[in-house]
Structure formats: structure tokens, C-alpha cells
Amino acid sequence: MTLDALAFEPHFLDHIAPVWRALPQGARGRLLVDRDLQLDARAEARGIEAEAVSGSQIRMSSPPPKARAGDGPLALVASIGDMKIARRLGYRRFVFIEHGMAQSYSGTGRSPIEASYSGGPDREDVVLFLVPNKHAAGRWRATYPQTPVEVVGCPKLETLPARDAGPAPVVCISFHWNTPLVGLPPEAGNALGEFRPILPDLAVRFPDLIGHAHPRHAKEMARIYRLAGIPFVEDFEEVCRRADVYVCDNSSTIFEFASTGRPVVLMNAKQYRRHVHHGLRFWEAASVGVQVDDKADLASCIDRALSDPPEQQAAREAALSVVYAYRGNAANRAAAAILEHIGEAVAA
């Protein structure tokens, strides 16, 4: 039996692709991606062949069965949403890899109520968790003590491009999406409401300003940036090629950009509670960059970040060591973990 993989959003594919390439050819089965989003072309650009199917049609098919451990087809996925799609297609066992830094929101001491975050429910059919840090590992182990968890780092970091030669400074500003889920804490939201009014002035202050957004918020943010006179850059790899500093509220891309050795600015919304500690972005690793609490201070904070003094660089590296247990060879480490834990189930 070989291992299949599924990726039905672009950022999920970006995390799966490096691991897929690192697996031996004989261990790889089919890589299924969403035809509706043209992810087969995205996979081809990453040097891998994918089979395109319609995600929208699959989502409208019969509801997936309730998760349960057992025999059956095995698939690598990077989200609970893709697990549900895979269940509709008949997959019954999963290798689950985090599609970011594994931020979660349980700082108030309550159990997580939403399945999208590390430690959440509906993973009884996972046979192996692959995570970037000890924070995520502890949460999965607490919820599923019988399921192996391997800390491997973040394979996506190995694919991020360096800054292209060109005029500087180029500033990129980005916003997370407001997750429309009941019961999530305010830290799961974005800072757009507070910082949007300053966008036109920011575009004047930094003529080479570009805008980015979470993939699920891209269409709306493209319109907002256009009204503010800011070019929209949808692909994060393109952001990495062009930007000298990355400004964002709450996203794994903050730490991914910082891992390339460049400065970041963290926009703190007023609803982000300083006394509630969820870990990672809130607040253990927030020292990865310059933090700004007031939109009036954003331009000066960007200037401070661009200067990137030695103490800022040291704080960035310390924060990255919290978010990523390893900063290299993560794809090979993930592939080795897959073969070690489920080697009897996949071709060597």
C-alpha cells in the first residue's frame, strides 16, 4: 500500500509538497488537489505531479463517516477540512501535518471547542501527527495519548525564496481572516478594523508598499487594498521575493517571513488580551518582531523594524526557536517519521 495525499487549499499544498517530494517514489501514491483552484498547476510549479479533482463537487457529496481508527486507505493531509473531504472519498487513516506554526487558543484554560486547531477533536482516525514545535506536540499528546506525535519543524520554510535584487525598502502589510466560528476568543480575529483607516497614508509614506492576506480573505482584501492604492500580492512566495519587512496581525506567515532573516512588525488589535497566554503568537514568541498597538505608531514601528539592530535580530532568533524546534531538514525528518511509524503500511 502507498500513501496518498490531499490538498484542497493553496497553503495546505505548500506544507505538504516538501514532504511529498522527500518521500521515496515507491511510498507515494496519488496527490489529489482541487481543480477548482487550479492547484495542479501550483503543484507542477513545485516539481510534483498531482491529480486534479473538484473540491466543490466532493463537498456536496454524501457526508463523511464519523472519524474512527481502523484499517483502510491512508492519506497525508494538512487540515481538518481536507480530512473531511478525504473521508468522503473513502480514506480511513491519516497522517496529519500542521499547516502553520500550530497556533491554538486555549489560554483561558477551557478545552478547545473547534476542530481546526491543535489538540482539537475529530482526529480519532489519525495514525501520526507531524508538528513544528513542542507546544503543538503537547496539545496533541494530551488529547490523543495513544497516537504518535513527531516534532519535525516546518518543511515549508525550506521552500521560501530569498529577497530578489531590487529597490528598497519594500513593505508588505497583511491581515489574517476573521474566522466565523462561534466560541473562539478575540485573539483569533484580525486587526483590520483598527488599522484599515491608515492604509492610504501608509501607501504615501512607503511608496513601494504591497498588500497580502490570508488565502481565505484574499478576495475581500484585494478590494480593500485597491481602494487604498496598494498593489495586492496574493502569493506569499512572491511576498518573500519582494519585501524587506512584513507587517501582519496574526498568522504563521509572520514567523515564516522572519525565518528568512528579515524583520517583521506585529499589529496588536485592542481585543488581543495581554493577560491571556495562548502560547506562540500570544505571547511567548511575539518578540519575533516590533509590536505596535496603535495605528498612529505603525509607520515609525516599520522604520524601527527596517533598521534591524543586533538586539532585534537576537530576539527574532529566540522567538523562532520557540515556534520551530528545527529550522532545517524538516521535510526529510517528516518523511522519515512517516516511514518509521507506518512503514509496514506503505511501500519502502
Structural write-up:
By secondary structure, this protein is α/β, with parallel strands linked by helices. It has two domains: 3-154 and 327-342, Glycogen Phosphorylase B (Rossmann fold, 3-Layer(aba) Sandwich), CATH 3.40.50.2000; 161-323, Rossmann fold (3-Layer(aba) Sandwich). It is 34% helix and 15% strand. The protein has 13 helices and twelve strands. Strands 3-2-1-4-5-6-7 form a seven-stranded parallel β-sheet, sandwiched between helices. A five-stranded parallel β-sheet has the order 9-8-10-11-12, sandwiched between helices. β1, α1 (10-22) and β2 (28-34) form a beta-alpha-beta unit. α1 packs across α13 (330-342). The chain starts with a strand and ends in a 6-residue tail after the last helix.
How are the SSEs placed, and which strands pair?
Elements: E1 3-7, H1 10-22, E2 28-34, H2 39-45, E3 51-53, H3 55-59, E4 74-77, H4 80-88, E5 93-97, E6 126-131, H5 134-143, E7 149-151, E8 171-175, H6 192-195, H7 199-205, E9 210-213, H8 218-228, H9 236-242, E10 245-248, H10 252-258, E11 264-267, E12 290-292, H11 298-307, H12 310-323, H13 330-342
Parallel strand pairs: 1-2, 1-4, 2-3, 4-5, 5-6, 6-7, 8-9, 8-10, 10-11, 11-12
Helix pairs in contact: 1-13
